[in-house]
Each structure stands twice: as structure tokens, then as C-alpha cells.
Write a structure and sequence with these properties.
The chain is built from 19 helices and 15 strands. The longest helix is centred in the C-terminal third of the chain and has 17 residues. It is globular, with a radius of gyration of 23 Å. The two termini are 42 Å apart. With 457 residues, the protein is an alpha/beta fold. Helices cover 44% and strands 12% of the residues. Strands 7, 8, 11, 12, 13 and 14 form a six-stranded mixed beta sheet that branches. It has a five-stranded mixed beta sheet with strand order 2-1-3-15-6. It has a two-stranded antiparallel ribbon with strand order 4-5. β9 and β10 form a beta hairpin. The protein folds into two domains: 221 residues, 3-Layer(aba) Sandwich (D-Maltodextrin-Binding Protein, domain 2), CATH 3.40.190; 198 residues, D-Maltodextrin-Binding Protein, domain 2.
């Protein structure tokens, strides 16, 4: 029954947006070529905007954008800035500054609040925006989104992206990038082990993992006897996904609660997998390489790493088919979605509108397609998939991930999640580091709950 409803969700998503997709190079694909053409922007001379900003005041206005990126993402963003600066009808000038990573960006942006050096637009994590919003320095984007002249069609953006950046009745940001945490499953190998479908519930996952490990005991190589099943991954969103798969989680009525029966079941299940040898830790082995070499039936990954997995299979000379799947639950599967958002800090009405116009331009599906082709993340707009047919052909696992999006779930909408998610990952890793017996996982969850209460004060 669970699979039936998943198929209905996936079908509705595909019908809403048509195809799904990806591409290897932002410079070679048709979508990338189209992105060099500046989309026509509706005339702002006509009456109707509710923002009460004189269009002439936008002429030549300069705004600053801070980003968390370096390398290829930063280079692509710089090209976007150059294109916008040379083509926008208001002659707005954007200056981008890389802060290298999210942690440094958060610290630097927070320190700049209340000073003349603060940026106009920040690409930050939603929990960062929530904290700044609590300090009263974030622009509510609701009037901008709904403006008849400068607004955006939010119905073209999947709800799991769009709802993340809402706090009460205030829109504190709009999505910039989104990814998700998945399980990767070797379909070919599983078929040889006697399984004709991906796991539909935790027990299915256990059976497949354990049978894969049992094959290692029969190959005459004692060095790999502990391998075969799931490679343990203690990234916070992996722990979060398993809690959700067991119908648990980290919140109860907007307060943190870790010590629950369902969460105990989730962590007990995972520790028992290790105790039975059906899950193993890749201390000196790259999990992706192990997956390609049939040393692991399952690994965990995010969308941006899918091309790396493809290359690993090619490098290993493997012709196995592998799939992207959600974390299997008894009643529903889990797929935690996360990523950065465009946050506009409060300034003058004119600067806020200029920052919004740049963010809106970045959300155009032509720019969105180039982001996908370069970063391999989700398309932010349903209509973007129409531009990515070639990418889909060469990135089938990316296309699978997109069809799973209707099952996606947002992150906790609390500013303290910035710290609590790190604690979740640390606590999860601690269980494996000390080889915690499965019967004692409640102790870890109790400590998590206590620590989360402290961190959220």
C-alpha cells in the first residue's frame, strides 16, 4: 500500500512538471546556452506595484551579495552576477563576495548586522535566517512574492522547498538550492541475492543487508568478512532520516524531543544491524569505492555526490545497475530535504527591491537549469525539468531522485536547529565510536534531549 501511494505522488509530480533531468556541463547543454539569453521582464512602468518604490530610484543602485561557495559554484554565481549586471533593465549593479562556507558566512554576516558593512542579500541556511529574523533584521518577502508587478509564481516551486522558509506568517527567505539524503542500492547485486525490489520496510532492509554480508563469508577472503551490508553513515541528516522512517523525529509541538519509543526503535534497529554484522564502518575504505566494488549493498549519499558514484562504477569496470531510494519505513519512507536560501536583510526599500529582483532572476528556470547542470541538485522550479531532457538521459539516478521529491520533508523550522543538528550527528556517531549495545540506545537519546534543551535556550 505504501508503494502504491508513492507511485501516485510521483505520477502527480511528473504530470505537473513533465520530465525530470540533468547535464554534465553548464556550457555545453541547450539549457546552458538558453541561459545566456536574458529573459524578458515584465514592464515595471505600468501601475500596480504595491511596494511603493519609484522605478527611477533603482537606476544604477548597487547591492552586495554574500555567498557560501568557492570553486565551481562560486564561478558560476559570478557569471550570473556578470550577466545580470549587463542585462537588467534597471541597471542594478550586484557585487558578490564569497565567504567560503556556511559556517564562516553565518559568523561574518551575524557580526555585520547593525553595521554599514552588512550585505543586502545572503545565501544562507534557513536556520540562520530564522535566527536573524528573531533579531528583526530580515525582510519579510511576502509582499515581494505577491506583488502584481515584481512577484513570482510560487505554484511552480515544489511545496517542500517553498514551505521551509516560512516562520509564522512571515516569509523570511526563498529557496536557493536544495538537496536530500538518500540510500543508494545495488539493484543488480540484490537481484543475484534473491531480491527483486528495493526495501519497502526496515525488515526488508535488514534482510538484504544481512544476506549481502553473508556472501562475504563464503568467498574465501577473510579480510572482507565484515563487509557487504550498509556502510554506516553518521551524517546528521542520515540520523534524522532514520528517525523519520520509524515515525519518530526530533520535534514534539515545536519543542525538541528525542527520547520517544519510535526513536528508540530506530536506533535499536541500526545498532542491531551492526551487532549482527549487517552494517559496517568504512574506517579505511571510501564508501563510494566500496559500493562500486560490491563490498556494500547500501551506502548513503546526497544528490551532489551522484556523479562521483557513477564515475566510481565506471572506474571499477562495473556494469551493475544502482538506484536512489528513500529510507524505508513501515508506513512511509523518509527523505529529508535541505539546502540554502536567499535571505534579504533589512535596508532601504529600494535596496530591498533591488535584492529581490536579483533573487527572482536567479530563480528563473533558465538559471535554475544551469545550477542543476553544475551542482547536480534538485531543480527549484517544476518547469525547469522541461529544459533538462538531455541531462536526464545522462544522469538517470538524478532523475530517480527527482521523482522521489513528493516524499520529501522539510527540516525543523527552529533557529536552534543550527546547533542541534550537529549534536544529533555527534550523538549518533558516538554510539558507533563506543560500540554502544543496542539495549542502551535510550541513554544516548536521553542525553540528546537534555543537550537539545540546553542548546535551544
Amino acid at each position: 500500500m505504501k508503494k502504491f501511494f508513492s507511485i501516485l505522488l510521483i505520477t502527480s509530480f511528473i504530470l505537473a512538471g513533465c520530465a525530470a533531468v540533468d547535464t554534465t556541463s553548464a556550457t555545453e547543454s541547450p539549457a546552458a546556452q538558453d541561459a545566456t539569453k536574458t529573459p524578458e521582464v515584465e514592464s515595471t512602468l505600468e501601475a500596480g506595484s504595491r511596494l511603493k518604490v519609484n522605478e527611477d530610484a533603482l537606476k544604477g543602485l548597487e547591492i552586495t551579495v554574500w555567498t557560501p561557495w568557492f570553486g565551481i559554484e562560486s564561478s558560476l554565481f559570478d557569471s550570473f552576477v556578470e550577466k545580470f549586471n549587463s542585462t537588467n533593465q534597471w541597471d542594478i549593479k550586484v557585487t558578490a563576495q564569497s565567504q567560503v562556507n556556511f559556517a564562516n558566512l553565518y559568523e561574518t554576516a551575524t557580526a555585520s548586522l547593525g553595521t554599514a558593512e552588512k550585505p543586502d542579500l545572503v545565501i544562507a541556511l534557513p536556520e540562520h535566517a530564522l535566527e536573524w529574523n528573531a533579531e528583526g533584521v530580515v525582510t519579510d518577502l511576502t509582499p515581494y512574492v505577491n506583488d502584481p508587478i515584481y512577484g513570482i509564481d510560487s505554484s511552480d516551486i515544489p511545496s517542500v522547498f517553498w514551505e521551509q522558509d516560512i516562520s509564522g506568517d512571515v516569509r523570511i527567505a526563498v529557496p536557493a538550492q536544495r538537496t536530500a539524503r538518500f540510500l543508494l542500492w545495488n539493484k543488480t547485486w540484490a537481484g543475484e541475492l534473491g531480491f527483486d525490489s528495493s526495501p519497502d520496510a526496515p525488515e526488508d532492509f535488514r534482510q538484504q543487508s544481512c544476506r549481502a554480508q553473508q556472501t562475504m563469508l563464503k568467498d574465501g577472503d577473510s579480510q572482507n568478512d565484515f563487509m557487504g551490508g550498509w556502510v554506516v553513515d553518521t551524517e546528521p541528516n542520515t540520523a534524522y532520516a532514520w528517525l523519520l522512517a520509524f515515525e519518530g523525529g526530533v520535534l514534539e509541538e515545536n519543542n525538541y524531543r528525542f527520547l520517544t519509543p519510535n526513536n528508540i526503535d530506530a536506533f535499536t534497529f541500526l545498532r542491531e544491524l551492526s551487532e549482527k554484522g549487517c552494517a559496517w564502518q568504512a574506517v579505511e575504505t571510501n564508501p563510494i569505492a566500496a559500493f562500486a566494488a560490491r563490498e556494500a549493498l547500501f551506502i548513503t549519499a546526497s544528490m551532489e555526490t551522484l556523479p562521483t558514484v557513477t564515475r566510481a562504477f565506471a572506474g571499477a569496470g562495473s556494469t551493475d545497475t544502482w538506484n536512489v531510494i528513500p529510507f524505508p519505513g513501515e508506513k512511509r519512507d523518509a527523505l529529508p530535504v535541505y539546502g540554502s536560501s536567499y535571505v534579504i536583510l533589512e535596508s532601504t526599500d529600494e535596496e530591498q527591491l533591488a535584492a529581490w529582483l536579483f533573487a527572482r532572476w536567479l530563480l528563473d528556470n533558465k538559471q535554475d537549469a544551469r545550477w542543476v547542470e553544475t551542482t547536480h541538485l534538485f531543480p527549484l522550479r517544476t518547469s525547469t525539468v522541461d529544459l533538462l531532457a538531455d541531462y536526464e538521459k545522462t544522469h538517470p539516478q538524478w532523475a530517480e531522485a527527482v521523482t522521489l521529491l513528493p516524499q520529501g520533508e522539510i527540516q525543523p523550522q527552529l533557529a536552534s536547529w543550527r546547533k542541534v543538528k550537529i549534536m544529533l550527528g555527534d550523538g549518533f556517531a558516538h554510539m558507533y565510536r563506543v560500540n554502544l549495545p543496542s539495549g542502551q540506545v535510550a541513554l544516548t537519546l536521553a542525553q540528546m534531549q537534555s543537550t537539545a534543551s540546553e542548546l535551544s535556550r
